[in-house]
Design goal:
By secondary structure, this protein is mainly α. It has one domain. The protein is built from five helices and two strands, in the order ααααββα. β1 and β2 form a beta hairpin. The complex comprises the extracytoplasmic solute receptor protein and the two transmembrane proteins. Belongs to the TRAP transporter small permease family.
Length: 178
C-alpha cells in the first residue's frame, strides 16, 4: 500500500510531539529537583535535619533527565557533533554529504536501539525483583522507573535518528529541497 507524502510527515510530527512532551517533563523534573535540593540544603543548615535520600534521587534523576531530553535535542539539531567535513560536503557535493549524513544517522539508530535493547531487560528484572536504591530503614526508592526511562529515551532517540535518516535518504535520491 503506497503512502502519500504527508504520511511520513504525520509520523514525524507525532514523534516530535512525544519528544517535546518528554522534554517538558524533564524540564519540570529539573525544577522540582532544584526545589528538593534547596529544601535539603536549608534543612541541613538551618534545622540540622536533611531530607533523606536526596543524593540517591539526584543521582538517578540526572540520568533520567538526560534520557528524557536527548531525543528532542537530536531532533532539533542541538546535539554536539563535529560536522566540518559534512558541512563542506553538503556545500560542494550535497548528495555525497547527504549520503554521509545518512550513514551516520543509521549508525545512530543502531547504537540507540542497542542501548534500549540492553537496558530494557534490566528494567524488567529490577521491577520483578523489587530492586531498590538506598539504605533499608532510612530511604529506599525503586530502580526500575529510571531504567525504563533510559530504555524509552534510547528508543525515542533511535526514532529521531531514523526520521533524520529518512530525510537524508530523500536528499541522496534528489527528492528533497532544502
Amino acid at each position: 500500500m503506497a503512502r502519500g507524502p504527508g504520511a511520513g510527515g504525520l509520523a514525524a510530527r507525532v514523534a516530535g510531539g512525544i519528544m517535546s512532551a518528554a522534554n517538558v517533563t524533564a524540564t519540570i523534573w529539573i525544577l522540582l529537583l532544584m526545589g528538593l535540593i534547596l529544601a535539603d540544603v536549608i534543612g541541613r543548615n538551618v534545622f540540622l535535619a536533611p531530607i533523606a535520600g536526596v543524593p540517591e534521587m539526584v543521582k538517578y534523576s540526572i540520568v533520567g533527565i538526560v534520557f528524557l531530553q536527548i531525543a528532542h535535542t537530536h531532533r532539533h539539531g542541538q546535539m554536539v557533533r563535529s560536522d566540518a567535513v559534512l558541512g563542506l560536503l553538503m556545500q560542494r557535493r550535497p548528495r555525497i554529504g547527504a549520503l554521509l549524513d545518512l550513514v551516520t544517522q543509521l549508525a545512530g539508530v543502531a547504537v540507540a536501539l542497542m542501548l534500549a535493547r540492553a537496558v530494557w531487560p534490566k528494567a524488567v528484572r529490577a521491577f520483578e525483583r523489587g530492586e531498590m536504591e538506598g539504605i533499608a530503614g532510612h530511604f529506599q526508592m525503586p530502580v526500575w522507573p529510571f531504567l525504563a526511562i533510559v530504555a524509552g529515551g534510547a528508543a525515542l532517540l533511535a526514532l529521531s535518528f531514523l526520521i533524520t535518516a529518512v530525510q537524508a535518504a530523500r536528499k541522496v535520491a534528489g527528492r528533497w529541497r532544502t
